[in-house]
Amino acid sequence: MEFISFFEHYVPPKPDVCLVEAESLNDLHQSGVIGFYDTHPINEEEILTKLAARGANLDALTEADLKDFDQDHYGGTDAVNALADAAGVRADHHVLDVCSGMGGPARWLAHRYGCRVTGIDLTTSRVEGATRLTRRVGLDSRVEFKQGDATAMPFADAAFDAVVSQEAWCHIPDKRSLIAECVRVVRPRCVIAFTDIVSLARMDPEEERRLLAEMLIPRPPLVREYTQLLGEASCAIEQSIDLSDKWIAILMARLQMYRSLRDTTIAKFGEARYLEYDRAYSHFVGLFVKRKLGGFRVAARKA
User: Fold this and answer.
1) Residue 29, CB half-sphere, CA atoms under 13 Å: how many?
2) Which domain holds residue 67?
């Protein structure tokens, strides 16, 4: 893929790089992220194939059918529930899911809590797939998805009662703008709750290069960098929970799960993409095993 070959030879710009060059690099990074998720092993077709193999009626799906296959994050619906509890989600809330992917968490929130949910994602194919899956399970009156940039969201100030996200902000280099936008769109005294990948120990240059080249993840922040940005944005930290140990087992299981999708991945994207992703994800999981990467759940309340 072109986005992989670029980042394999990526050299960070000098500090005096002009704004136009910086914007071009950001655009290229966003294109890489879009390409990464356009060819992700978990996709609408794969989800429906798994459901059909289980014997589900694809013309009469329920959220109970879908929830076992569409939670493309760590920990399934239990993790969504923990995030919703941290955010204090209620039936009368309108929740924003930032970087909503295939829409699994958004659908589950609407199903379990009865709330309205809007998801925003950079990748058009994920937005379209999430919309179709939502329609299949009859949740489209309460759940919608929009294509957009999380650092410049197309929503009014104070439009939402809670903001949630799961393991997606790692792809976004500009964490300050991301946090500022989440704070802008949530109502006063409401909560931003998210899980994300963080740095636990210094990676060597080759590990950092591969993480960027293969997983489209620039150097993950320390958890204190997230909490500092939230504090600077007038948010009070209510929860900061280390999930690193739990995630190691989950990630190792996910690596085997992705390998079980070999045939469907090759059929859709080709053997080269399967092997490329397997190499990338193996390295990624290895960084968790070596305790260089970890995971945290953070919840912060806007003033």
Assistant:
1) 21
2) 2-243+293-302
